[in-house]
Design goal:
It is found in: Membrane. Residues 1-22 form the signal peptide. The chain crosses the membrane at residues 174-193. Residues 194-245 form the HAMP domain. The protein has 460 residues and is α+β, with helices and mostly antiparallel strands. It is built from nine helices and 14 strands. The chain has helices at residues 9-58, 160-196, 198-212, 224-271, 275-300, 315-328, 350-367, 405-408, 425-435, and strands at 60-61, 67-68, 86-92, 96-98, 119-125, 132-142, 149-159, 311-313, 335-340, 345-347, 371-379, 388-395, 439-444, 451-457. It starts with 8 loop residues before the first helix and ends with a strand.
């Protein structure tokens, strides 16, 4: 079963924005719908109250206690038009009246309210003629030339369909405007997302050009948020390119260096009759090839600086190296002391750290009389950058004259030809530091009096 392709950043952002926008517009539409419904209901109540007051003002009571409503001049002509949707009526003990529009309608106009002079509004009320909105008012009407009063209840009603039609028209308008606004905002959001993600697409395009060999690194101008990423990627590209170049050079150098010893060996085998002489020549060439291979393999093993390398603790590896060296140089009875910062870390390959420490400590053990000091400190640590490393190996040996330092740091040069070795240890150290953009400084030890090899790898 094929794995589902993950959504792009643009699709994710647009989907999230669409959901948020739909929720916002939905809540906005609901709030506006409730607001307009309440506004239309209040307007309807005020209009029906106006009609009711109009009937109150135009109606008269005769001496016999019979109410005479204003049928000929109603507050609205629809009261005289049958089934117009606007109805009026009066109820009382001896008075019962309906407007012409209410004839044949089953309306709740028989209800009698106490004469409280307070208007009662209700609706929608279900009736046999459909739902209506109803305004009622109970009053005591004075009879001319009589002291008694007649209790009456005035009713004015309107079909709910009138308000529903207004509300439906508003909802359609609201839907059109909110829908149009939603589409416009989504289009705007899409344009904003495309503009915002343009630097990421440019980074992807530039990486494709790097993969195709059209460019060597990411060289465009990127936003501040991407600067750290592009810098790290450029560092990774340069590091990998340096590794590849070093591997190619190492293989080329190894092949070239072995050509001469192999040719000499072949000639000796073909022309040398003396077994002892042949054995000596063969041993000499084997020793020479062993030296070449050891050097080239050490050089190829230099991994160099990795942008995303995990930090490597130093003290444990230093102890393991020193324990091995103490066995090799047991006759010298050398004391190796540590002054290692617990926070110090090497950001690179563990093999590079072992080569670095191994060559420096072995060189110190080789020349020391009785004491060796290893000092490791963490330098330049910040929240934005990982810490650098300051490493120093000192001994109490004869030291190195300042005028011979550059010569002894050359490849294949030994301080004393009588001392066993290939003369490439310090060269390997320099190759490693070159890969890590570090530096090696050789001075005289102020504490022990011998040589001091100080390695510095700045923060990255």
């Amino acid at each position: 079963m094929a794995r589902r392709r993950p959504l792009s950043l643009q699709a994710r952002s647009l989907l999230a924005a669409s959901v948020a926008l739909a929720a916002f517009l939905g809540l906005t539409g609901f709030a506006l719908d409730e607001a307009i419904y309440n506004a239309l209901r209040s307007s309807l109540q005020e209009r029906l109250q106006t009609y009711l007051y109009g009937y109150l003002a135009a109606s008269e009571m005769n001496r016999s206690g019979q109410l005479q409503p204003a049928e000929e001049l109603p507050p609205d002509p629809r009261f005289n038009r049958p089934s117009s949707g606007l109805y009026a009526g009066v109820s009382g003990e001896k008075n019962s009246w309906r407007s012409r529009s209410a004839i044949g309608k089953n309306l709740p106009f028989d209800n009698v309210l106490p004469p409280s002079n307070e208007i009662k509004f209700s609706g929608p009320v279900d009736t046999g003629s459909g739902p209506i909105y109803l305004v009622s008012l109970g009053v005591n009407w004075e009879v001319p030339n009589r002291r008694n009063k007649v209790p009456l209840t005035f009713h004015v009603a309107e079909d709910a369909s009138v308000l529903d039609a207004e509300l439906s028209a508003f909802r359609r308008t609201l839907l059109v405007y909110l829908g149009g606004l939603g589409l416009l905002l989504l289009l705007l959001q899409l344009l904003v997302l495309r503009w915002s993600l343009l630097p990421l697409r440019r980074v992807s395009s530039d990486l494709t050009k790097v993969e195709r060999g059209e460019t060597e690194r990411l060289s465009g101008r990127y936003p501040l948020e991407l600067t750290g990423l592009t810098t790290s990627v450029n560092g990774l590209i340069e590091s990998e390119r340096d590794h590849l170049k070093r591997y190619r050079n190492t293989l080329s150098d190894l092949a070239h260096s072995l050509k001469t010893p192999l040719a000499v060996t072949r000639n000796q085998l073909e022309s040398e009759p003396d077994g002892d002489a042949l054995r000596g020549a063969m041993m000499e060439q084997v020793r020479r090839m062993d030296q070449i291979v050891a050097y080239q393999l050490s050089r190829a093993a230099t991994s160099g600086q990795h942008t995303f390398a995990a930090p490597v603790a130093i003290e444990q590896h230093a102890e393991e190296i020193v324990m091995s060296l103490e066995k090799v140089y047991a006759t010298k009875n050398i004391l190796c002391e540590f002054d290692i910062d617990a926070k110090a870390r090497f950001y690179g390959e563990q093999g590079d750290l072992l080569e670095l420490l191994g060559n420096l400590l072995e060189n110190a053990f080789k020349w020391a009389k009785h004491r060796v000091l290893l000092t490791v400190k963490s330098i330049g640590a910040t929240q934005a950058h990982r810490s650098g490393l300051l490493l120093c190996v000192e001994d109490d040996g004869p030291g190195i004259p300042p005028e011979r330092i550059d010569y002894l740091l050359q490849r294949g040069v030994r301080g004393d030809e009588r001392v066993q070795g290939h003369g490439i240890g310090l060269s390997i150290v320099q190759d490693i530091l070159k890969a890590y953009r570090g530096e090696l400084k050789v001075t005289q030890s102020e504490m022990l009096g011998g040589a001091a090899f100080q390695v510095r790898i700045d923060r990255t």
